[in-house]
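[Primary structure, fold]
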Amino acid sequence: ISGYSLVVQARDSGTPPLSSSVTVNVDISDVNDNSPVFTPANYTAVIQENKPVGTSILQLVVTDKDSFHNGPPFTFTILTGNEEEEFTLDPHGVLRSAVIFKHMVSTEYVLCVQAKDSGKPQQVSHTYVQVRVIEESIHKPTAIPLEIFIVTMEDDFPGGVIGKIHATDQDVYDVLTYTLKSEQKSLFKVNSHDGKIIALGGLDNGKYVLNVSVSDGRFQVPIDVVVHVEQLLQEMLQNTVTIRFENVSPEDFVGLHMHGFRRTLRNAVLSQKQDSLHIISIQPAAGSGQLDMLFAVQMHSGGFYKPAYLIQKLTNARRHLENAIRISAVLEKNCSGLDCQEQHCEQSLSIDSHSLMTYSTARISFVCPRFYRNVRCMC
């Protein structure tokens, strides 16, 4: 308990007795009776040979149960194991290399490190750090090419994470870093640690080829990343059809089925090769394991096919479409549960272009806006 607050009353012996109160605050000052604590108690770290001087090897973590003036800042000292001054330890507890290590010279170092707190008198603790020197990288990183499809309303892309690069390295202790060529940083960013690709707001319609690379510190490997941006027209929303799939997650659909189903769907509904199929959005159907895919077909002349025409085409080709993935229903209108006849059901579709859904797999990422279907009875 760091303090007490007492209310003290004094009362005299007169008639009637009179009294007065005062508040007495009692602060308990801290005595430096706790030593710093290392977490964990001892450390193991590795460093690859031929890493440059100043390479970070380890971050020491120290806490102290005493109050702040008896705890940090801590003073770190290497007591033993650093007689040749191969290591340095900065005031923040970061252990760094002071030489270029060679695996053939020595494979292991054991350091005894002391942490001293700021109290009076000072308290100290010790930990042991085992540093292993391993051979430098002999394998190049490998990365999977990534293709990203972004669907957005006209000039209304808010930006965000649009995918993630998947890279591996057979060298167990290699740390991979990702970089993007500087001239493309006005539109995209790549997280250097985990490979996530971030698009900034306001992307224009078109195709973007990103110059991304992954490095293990010795080898640098380019990665093919292509971003396709498609801007929706308001007229598309009035001519959409929804295909509902059975028991498939959005990620499985994107990674396993989207390319093949898109090709099969084109063959089923396009009247001319010059017509364009637009997948507007995919999202899980509420309260089920089903998945809705929203699409429209644009004629070569510029207009859009009516939903009734597309549904007729889909009905005729349904058996062929289901060779790859099971279809639960084809929806133009969704009046189930409403007490009205089909011809008296009015449906409106709205797109929330600022609520993007990103379905990312190792090879394909699909980014699309969330959509809402509203129906009402007109009877």
